[in-house]
Q: What sequence folds into this?
C-alpha cells in the first residue's frame, strides 16, 4: 500500500497527503479528479508493471487505496 500511496502523491493531486488517508477513504472526496485518475492509472501501470484492462477503467477501481490494491492484485494474479 505504501507504493500506491507514493504514486497517489505523485499523480493524484489530492488535497491531503496519501499517507493521511485510510485505506477505504474516498479518493474523489480527497480531491481526485477524472483527469488526475487517468494520470494516476498511468503512474500505477508504470510502478507496478501492469496494464489495467478496459473493464477496470472506471471510478470504482480508483475510488480508494484499498480498491486500487485489490485491482492490482487481481491483474497480477491473472497475469501469473
A:
Amino acid at each position: 500500500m505504501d507504493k500506491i500511496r507514493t504514486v497517489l502523491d505523485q499523480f493524484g493531486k489530492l488535497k491531503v497527503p496519501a499517507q493521511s488517508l485510510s485505506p477505504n477513504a474516498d479518493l474523489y472526496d480527497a480531491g481526485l479528479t477524472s483527469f488526475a485518475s487517468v494520470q494516476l492509472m498511468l503512474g500505477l501501470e508504470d510502478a507496478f508493471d501492469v496494464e489495467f484492462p478496459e473493464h477496470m477503467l472506471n471510478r470504482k477501481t480508483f475510488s480508494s487505496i484499498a480498491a486500487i490494491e485489490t485491482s492490482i492484485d487481481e491483474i497480477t494474479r491473472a497475469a501469473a
